[in-house]
Q: What sequence folds into this?
């Protein structure tokens, strides 16, 4: 059951990257990734902390989940790197930038409550505003 939750999350993250890849700029791509990743954490996973339970998996299943997460992180890092190269994002370390963004989004699992007043669309927009304000050159 735990593996299936992770597998479904990875399917959603792959979809997000495919959609982002069709957008015209690194800024639009990163905004989409942040907004949709927040939606997956709040709507699909309903804020479940299961996203952190990779160590409970064994062998090949654990390796598949970790490899999928690594692919996602590297692709988001490439979006950030490209944005820096074309001047859309401030210069910096893309690896640190992606860890800040993904760390903030993944922390949703620690505090989000589906019955609360915060919901995916508004929360996604808040995350885009807060996380990208220091990155995007406007």
A:
């Amino acid at each position: 059951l735990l593996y299936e939750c992770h597998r479904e999350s990875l399917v959603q993250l792959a979809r997000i990257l495919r959609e982002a890849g069709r957008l015209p700029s690194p800024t639009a791509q990163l905004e989409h990734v942040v907004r949709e990743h927040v939606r997956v954490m709040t709507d699909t996973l309903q804020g479940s902390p299961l996203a952190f339970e990779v160590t409970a998996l064994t062998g090949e299943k654990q390796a598949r989940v970790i490899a999928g997460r690594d692919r996602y992180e590297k692709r988001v890092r490439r979006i950030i790197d490209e944005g820096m190269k074309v001047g859309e994002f401030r210069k910096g370390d893309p690896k640190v930038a992606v860890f800040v963004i993904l760390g903030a989004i993944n922390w949703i699992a620690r505090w989000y409550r589906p019955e609360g007043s915060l919901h995916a669309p508004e929360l996604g927009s808040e995350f885009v505003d807060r996380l990208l304000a220091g990155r995007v050159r406007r």
Remarks:
- The radius of gyration is 15 Å.
- Helices lie at 2-21, 26-44, 59-85, 94-106, 108-111, 120-132.
